[in-house]
Specification:
The chain has 253 residues and is mainly alpha-helical.
Length: 253
Amino acid sequence: MFILFVQRAFRTAYKQTVLCQLWFIITPVLSVIVYVAVFGGVAHISTDGAPPILFYLLGISVWGYFAACLTGTSNSFVTNADIFGKVYFPRIIMPLVAVTVQLLYFCIQLLIFIAAYCYYLAIGTELTIHWQIVLFPLLMIMLAFMAVGVGMVVSSLTTKYRDLQIIFAKVITLWVYVTPVIYPLSMVTNPKLHLAMSLNPVTPVMEAVKYSLLGVGQFSWMWLLYSFVFTIVIDIIGLAIFNKVQKSFMDTV
């Protein structure tokens, strides 16, 4: 059932569109063009010496993966109400399906990043890769489980309070601006603001990814441990609430 749901979600993502799955490539490319033009060309925001295209492409891909997992998980109950009402199966499958599908999309975007990376290497651009690159898969897994935990909490609450679905969509939109996606954390020189942004559990992961692949950013075991503990705690809370709500979900809807 899990495999069938993943296949269905992947095939129907851009169903009845002319370009179909090409949108998985077009979307990040267009976003990078806009970011380079606006934040790099107009606002002159620093990328800590990394090529702007690689900096924004990596940031967009990683954040997009997290945000999509978060959105897909948080809508698990609402978007699958018709299926839940017809047959019983472990409801936790749906958040895991959302994460798996987004992982497939992320892998496609990662191939674009690798192609751009190889291009810069071919033209002689100096790029630094640190040994922490071996942690990249683990960082993505942690980011996914973080999204699942937060998403399950929101999904459980939106079954009764639909306003939260709208509010949370706005929160995700604003969340990206307090995460070093389009700018490096080193730009934030105010100590209090720097601490506040570091307390954002996505920040240490984003910085670690940029450090390992581009040689920019701030890698900190202490802050990664903080993100890991946050992920474990929010997953336990989310799973507990999710399991409680699913028992009376259809009655609420």
